[in-house]
Amino acid sequence: MSAAAETTAGAAPGVRATKRRRRSVLLLATPALLVLGLALLVPILYLLYQSFIVGLGYGQLQNSFTLSNYTDALKDPVNRSIAIRTFSLAALTATICILLGYPASFFITFRLRRARNLALFLVVVSLFTSYLVRLYAWYTVLGKDGLINTALKTLHLIDAPIGFLLFSKWAVLIAFVNVFLPFTILILASAMQSIPSELLENSRDLGASAFQSFTKVVLPLTTPGLVAAFAYTFVLTSGDYITPALLGGKQSQTLASIVRDEFVTFGNQPAGAALSFLMVLVFAVVYIAVSQTRRYKGL
Amino acid sequence: MQGRPEAPSIRFTRRELLRHAGIAALAVGGLPALLEACSSSSSSSSPAGGTSGSGTADISGTTLDFYSWQGYDIPVKPIKDWLKTNDVTMKPSYINTHDDITAKFTTGGGRGNYNLSTYEAGWGPLYIQLGIPSVLDTSKVPNFDKAYDVFKPGGTAGAWFNVNGNQYAFPFTWGVQGINYQADAIDAPTSYKDLLEPAFTNKFGITDDPVATTVIGAYSLGMYRADSLYTQDQLDQITQFWMQMKQNARLIIPSYGNMGDLLASGEIVAGTPGWAAVNSFAADKGDDNVKHTVPKEGAATFCDAYMIPAEAPEADTAYAFINEAFTPEAQAAEATYLVQACVVPEAVDMLDPATKALYPYDDIEQLLTTTAPLEAIPAQVPSGYVNYQDWVKAWESVKAS
User: Fold this and answer.
1) Which strands sit side by side in the sheet containing B63-68, from one edge to the other?
2) I need a labelling partner for B260 at 20 to 30 A (CA). Which of A82, A115, A223, B177 fits?
3) Neighbouring C-alpha atoms within 13 Å toward the C-beta of B94
4) If you compute the radius of gyration of chain A from its CA atoms, what whole number of angstroms results?
5) Which part of chain B is CATH 3.40.190.10?
6) What is the domain partition of chain A in residue ranges?
């Protein structure tokens, strides 16, 4: 047998193995792709289509192309003021979660080497309680007869209960941070755990200070995690209308509640769909903007 | 009372409806489906399915797929006993707002999946136009004969449910929506405008209910109309009124159930639009001092009725339940449980004095005709008037302010 023939004969099983691997991967991925395609992509595409047709209300549609669902949503002054309220609160929540979550994740990952898993478990434990229960729990903390007011009265620091603790945008902010901080910590801790410890040791061996190691090694390598955590919190807070409704007091309306009104109250899916896609557009812009931060200062 | 509004003109003509059904049917499966669509359209004015006449059908082992407010499934004796005796399973799904019903039976996949639901009087014309309720066979609900005349066909309230000789729903409960208040903390407010006083600053809540707020706003400003035909200028005045109220309020209350919690916990001392049932929600939290009052300006009034949605499965089970719901015992239980008014005189005698005193049973006709008549939902209105969507938009602007 010639050398060339040997090479060809040897490659054939390799090619077959590669093909088999590809088929296996495809087979394994098919269920997930089907679920994503049928349960997510198809409805989203249908919603996108609906956003460009005429809604007559109460579920009745007219199949003629229009951009008015988008232009009406953008022109509505109520939508604009609520959008500012919704997105500014979401950005503030995401920023606070990052500011609180980053040092906590750093401490858990790099300082609690043995107790790391226990600490992460404790972070996850807070998610075991139902979302609504946790929201109502804030009544017992921030309410007129809640823990804070009772403590302040006991200490003779106030005569009458402070009313603005509950039913205000601050109450919503506190509840949002409480709900999303564990997710932020998990995302950031995951990003930090992927940093090889040798990198940190090498940077110290090469004379970097602890601060320099942090800014030149840890921070750049965790930027994707930071972006993901910020985007995750921003998107989910923007879409939440239960927390503002229960804790927001007079400022309880959000863009999501307006979307709900369009779909449920008016039966105007095209208007609701257009507003939803405008929100998605904002999410995309925010994500891209936050992602660009890594371009600065060597991040 | 202003003349009862005519049913709004049908948005889709019958021909258009058939055309749309035809296109859809051809798209999904061809001629058999088209024939089915046509036949269901043509039989839309006949009573909902089930056995004919007043014969008793075998409903053992069947299910009531219920879609409406919590409590309207009357989860207490004697209905619980009736369900057990007849081996009927109640599968309730509860709504948060009346709009959930509209959405469920127009776009939300409810058609053909539920056999029992309800609608409030004012929604009747729109629902009939949208084909949501089926025409009912009155012979299958003989107990409805026990109701006050005002709720029967030809009665002031009954006219909302019997249109052109077709019975679309059976009214089983009604009530008024004024102000709930914490009787331990304050005297009953006599006017909605009392809530604008400094004494109420940051001490009361406004319920997130665009219909009741519009009606109460109209009452407060002396411009109430039972036909709900308001001009844009009048709606603007109502909006301004609620913006003023909101400035003095502590919060927008997301639901009536939540109002019970807030009153019981002392976070607020009053809430409007109210609902007598909030008294029992608060009592469930251990506070028996939450009361309901109707201020001097008037109150939003509601009357809810059981309907069997079009294309409902096991309609006989729904008929049997509805018939049972009009027994005096079930009516008294419902009125007590929901703190609402019943529609059967015999049931009134079974109520405890406190529950009985909540509603003027001796003068129902006067109340529902002139004092607090049922109001229309302005789904479609003549030119120059605002419609329901305008009401909701106006309410959204109050919430956004």
Assistant:
1) B89-94, B63-68, B116-120, B300-307, B170-177
2) A82
3) 9
4) 26
5) 63-170+304-359, 179-298+376-400
6) 3-50, 75-296
Amino acid occupying residue B182: Q
- CB of B177 closer than 8 Å to CB of B274: yes
Tokens (6 digits) for B374: 């049922």
Pick from A163, A250, A264: CB nearest B99? A264
Which of B99, B214, B244 to mutate against chain A (most A CBs within 10 Å)? Answer: B99
CB contact under 8 A, B103 and A267: yes
> In this complex, do B399 and A166 lie within 8 Å of one another by their Cβ atoms?
no
**Residue A265: its chain B contacts at CB < 8 A?**
97, 99, 103, 210, 392
**Residue A80: both structure tokens together:** 């604009």
CB under 8 Å, gap of 24 or more: what pairs does B284-289 form?
Answer: B284/B260, B285/B260, B285/B261, B287/B182, B287/B263, B289/B182, B289/B183, B289/B184
Q: What are phi and psi of A213, to 5 degrees?
A: -60, -40
Other C-beta atoms within 10 Å of B194: how many?
Answer: 18
pTM: 0.79
Which ipTM was obtained for this model? 0.78
What topology does CATH give the domain B63-170+304-359? Answer: D-Maltodextrin-Binding Protein; domain 2 (3.40.190)
Taking residues A12-29, what's their average pLDDT?
Answer: 85
**Three-point CA angle A70, A72, A76, nearest 5°:** 125
**What are the phi and psi torsion angles at B224 (to 5°)?**
-60, 140
Chain A positions touching B106 (Cβ under 8 A) are: 58-60, 267
Over its C-alpha atoms, chain B yields an Rg (Å, rounded) of 21
Q: Do B11 and A60 touch (CB under 8 A)?
A: yes
Residue of chain A minimizing CA distance to B268: A144
Given an 8 Å threshold on Cβ–Cβ distance, is A139 in contact with B265? yes
Query: Which residue in the set B130, B210, B254 is minimally distant from A245, CB to CB?
Result: B254
Which residues in chain A have their CB less than 8 angstroms from residue B97's CB?
A: 264-265
- Domain B179-298+376-400 maps to which CATH number in 3.40.50.880, 3.40.190.10, 3.30.70.890, 3.30.360.10? 3.40.190.10
Please give the structure tokens belonging to residue A129.
């309680």
401 residues of chain B, pLDDT tens digit each? 333 333 333 333 333 333 333 433 333 333 333 333 333 333 344 556 544 434 467 899 999 999 998 889 998 889 999 999 999 999 999 988 888 999 999 877 888 999 999 999 999 988 998 999 999 999 999 999 999 999 999 898 999 999 999 999 999 999 989 999 999 999 999 999 999 999 999 999 999 999 999 999 999 999 999 889 999 999 999 999 999 999 999 999 998 888 999 999 999 999 999 988 898 889 888 998 999 999 999 889 999 999 999 999 999 999 999 999 999 999 999 999 888 999 999 999 999 888 888 888 988 888 888 778 898 889 889 999 999 989 999 999 999 98
| CATH number for the domain whose boundaries are A75-296 | 1.10.3720.10
Question: What is the enclosing helix (H) or strand (E) of A60?
Answer: strand A60-65
Query: Distance from B196 to chain A by nearest Cα, in Å?
Result: 15
Residue of B133, B55, B159, B141 lying closest to B330 (CA atoms): B141
CA distance A240 to chain B (A): 14
How far is the alpha carbon of A83 from chain B, nearest alpha carbon, in Å? 10
Report CB contact under 8 Å: A143, B267.
yes
